[in-house]
Amino acid sequence: MLADHQELDVVVTAVASVGIVVRADAYEGFIDQAKHPSWWSEAPRAAVGERMRAVVLDATRTPPRLSALPSDVRVARSLRHTEPLTRLCPPPAPGRTVEWAVVEEALGVALPADYKRLVEMYGGGVFAGALWLLEPDCPDAMYDLVAQTAEREEILAELWAAGEDRPPQLRGDVRLVPWGYVEGAGHVLYWLVRPGVEPEEWTVVLNEGRGPLWEAHAASCSRFLVDVVAGTTSSYYFTDLDDPVDQDERTSFAPNAQILGR
Known about the structure:
Elements: E1 7-16, E2 19-24, E3 27-32, E4 51-58, E5 65-67, H1 70-79, H2 82-88, H3 100-107, H4 113-122, E6 125-127, E7 131-133, H5 145-161, E8 175-182, E9 188-193, E10 203-207, E11 214-217, H6 221-230, H7 247-250, E12 253-255, H8 256-260
Parallel strand pairs: 3-5
Antiparallel strand pairs: 1-2, 1-4, 2-3, 4-5, 6-7, 6-12, 7-8, 8-9, 9-10, 10-11
Helix pairs in contact: 2-6
């Protein structure tokens, strides 16, 4: 049975004006014309027998709806890491609704789909008793995504101006947008934002709280969280979580409403 966000190699079996029918092993699916690259560019139209990479958008439809757009494939890859996280660490109910267009306008940048999904499912709060997920519109500016983005940009600009060593990957036309924070230790987790790089391709960098060291991870924020919660992280700053945190706490999530009492 197909599942949402599943990635497949498919072959075109029929072409119509409204879209194409494809087959992957024993499964048949449908790709709307707007979900094929030719709708948006000069790419060749689909032809019977053509093979392509596709992703499942809605597995509940008959036949399931798929997309062959590279952007949808990237989004699906990032969203797939939210699913093991919910199994390891069930989100509280209910979820929350966010006006993402307003948030992204305030930040001046679009945000990764997996981060949006995490906030909608969990809201802001602490994973594994250590890692605080920032959220938009948090009543405490310390844990608010927009407020912390402005504050951290100011702090980093002052550090660079004062002569603190700037790692090579942070030089040039890049931007750091914070998404996580470690209370007590003071570590800050950022997305590394580069011109022309889609949000789903952003990677994570961590700045230690009481020193100049940086750590880079070729992973999305949801993948980084999964590894921290599962105890499979390669981060120097999270490999010793087993000492202060018991297993039950490691696979738990404490929402802002509970922590901040609001």
